[in-house]
Design a protein that fits this description.
single chain; about 500 residues; alpha/beta; 6-stranded antiparallel β-barrel; elongated; binds manganese (II) ion
Length: about 500
């Protein structure tokens, strides 16, 4: 993923001075070895950086402030090799703004039954040192992920790896910029939201540009660049005959190539992470961007249709989480259903803008009327999404908080061909079942727009909500409607009280 920097994670080991210099040297050496070995596994997506062990409140405070200011630090892994009295940590942790993972491990894997003596006992105390540390996190209501297991345990490594991906996405959001061409679709409620709250809480800003600014960027693109991109389309995709070079509608393809190049230049020049547009505000554009949006999403940009800036930011975050993982991630909308009693299905799609990272084969480039917006026919990539487990995630502004909602789904190959459907699509079954999932989604006020991904997991979303300090509601194989409704009610109370508890 080219347009997201790769930050690092600091590895912090706590101890105290009670044990003398020898054991502290050993603590530092052991900690360094763990960092080296973890980096060597290649299982972690971000580099761990060893930091000198911390034994005094002044050092802890200085380290936390340094982490806050370090541009390239996306988070901290904390581990207490020995006991490290946690009142020493209050000052530093209270100031720390970066995500934390509390790794509950120990240096030795096996207990040396025949050798163990009191020196060993003094040196290897994570079993109780990490408990003291966990208390101060709980007491300060600190966000964190707790991972338990020996550092060589691949399951534990994968928990750390999942969290690292999420810290990268969070890091990307902080100070990140999203651009909206026009406002959101008139009268629509769920795509509204408080952009001031979003920036204060989630770190990214959302600002608007007139669509004329985009038109200008398109006009600045050279004819030769347009010709080159059209050739690339013909190479990468199955382009409909009329759209090909010398075809009767080739000018439409040239127009969307110009649109893509103009949009790309606008995003690159403004350092934007994603964009929204709306078919209600296309002044100066001949077509709603279709293939342009699809291909920009495939390059990692966030997108939300109809001015949906929250879904745009979410799609971007999911793209960063998923970077270099198999699968794909797209903007999505629950479009229409198959309510056959033998098994209810959702057909997910959008007017145009589904990301080809989820295409199961070579996409087709086609041109069809949009049937909405009254503009010229837009060019789009058409394809089916492959079978496999995936998630749909949505983020809503409930007035006093943001709610992140996740439904685990199983994508299937479309049971029949869809020869007349001129848009990319995915067909899925919901977990635990269609009726429970849809009712839960609707009780939760879930948006019709989602971030849809084969690569991002519920664990990632859980870590993301924890770091962001926002509500998370999950609809999965274990969801029962009565309990789900009660969880939503409980959350109303929690998120009303949590600021007074020092959390959020
Ligand atoms: Mn839509």
């Amino acid at each position: 993923m080219k347009n997201a920097p790769i930050p690092e994670i600091w590895f912090i080991t706590g101890s105290q001075h009670l044990y003398g210099e020898g054991p502290l040297k050993q603590v530092a050496a052991n900690s360094q070895k763990i960092v080296d070995e973890l980096n060597a596994t290649k299982r972690l997506p971000l580099k761990l950086v060893f930091k000198p062990i911390l034994t005094r409140p002044e050092e802890i405070r200085a380290l936390c402030l340094e982490a806050n200011g370090a541009q390239n630090c996306a988070g901290l892994v904390l581990w207490m090799h020995t006991f490290s009295p946690s009142k020493m940590w209050i000052g530093g942790l209270s100031l720390l703004k970066k995500p934390m993972l509390h790794l509950h491990t120990q240096f030795n894997r096996d207990l040396p039954w025949s050798e163990i003596d009191m020196d060993f006992m003094n040196l290897n105390q994570a079993a109780h040192g990490d408990r003291e540390h966990g208390f101060i996190h709980a007491r300060l209501r600190t966000q964190r992920k707790v991972v338990v297991g020996h550092w060589s345990d691949e399951q534990a490594q994968d928990r750390i790896g999942a969290w690292m991906r999420v810290t990268r996405a969070w890091h990307d959001w902080q100070g990140g910029k999203f651009v909206r061409f026009g406002d959101n679709m008139r009268y629509v409620a769920v795509t509204e939201g408080d952009k001031v709250s979003a920036e204060a809480k989630l770190g990214f800003s959302v600002n608007y540009h007139g669509v004329g600014d985009l038109v200008q960027a398109m006009n600045d693109i050279s004819d030769s660049a347009v010709t080159k991109l059209c050739a690339e389309y013909e190479q990468l995709y199955t382009v409909a005959d009329g759209l090909k070079k010398n075809g009767e509608r080739h000018e439409s393809l040239r127009y969307v190539a110009r649109q893509e190049l103009g949009l790309r230049a606008f995003l690159e020049n403004g350092n934007f992470l994603g964009f929204t547009d709306t078919f209600e505000d296309l002044h100066g554009l001949k077509q709603l961007p279709g293939i342009a949006t699809q291909r920009l999403m495939a390059d990692g940009y966030g997108f939300g249709g109809e001015g949906d800036w929250k879904t745009c930011a979410l799609v971007r975050a999911m793209k960063v989480i998923a970077a270099d993982l198999p699968g794909g991630t797209s903007f999505m909308e629950d479009y229409t259903y198959d309510l056959n009693p033998k098994g209810h299905l959702v057909l997910g799609s959008h007017m145009l803008e589904i990301c080809p990272s989820i295409a199961s084969g070579k996409p087709k480039v086609e041109i069809h009327p949009l049937g909405i917006g009254g503009k010229e026919d837009p060019v789009r990539l058409v394809f089916d999404a492959p079978a496999g487990p995936a998630i749909n995630a949505a983020i809503m502004d409930l007035g006093n908080r943001f709610r992140l909602l996740v439904n685990e789904v199983d994508v299937i190959a479309p049971p029949q061909p869809l020869p007349k459907l001129p848009v990319a699509r995915a067909v899925w079954k919901c977990r635990p079942d269609f009726k429970t999932a849809c009712a839960a989604w609707i009780y939760a006020g879930g948006a019709h727009h989602t971030g849809f991904s084969y690569s991002v997991t519920t664990e990632h979303m859980e870590d993301f909500a924890e770091i962001a300090g926002i509500e998370l509601a999950i609809i999965d194989a274990d969801t029962r409607l009565r309990g789900f409704k009660q969880d939503l009610r409980n959350n109303e109370i929690y998120y009303h009280l949590a600021p007074g508890l020092g959390r959020l």
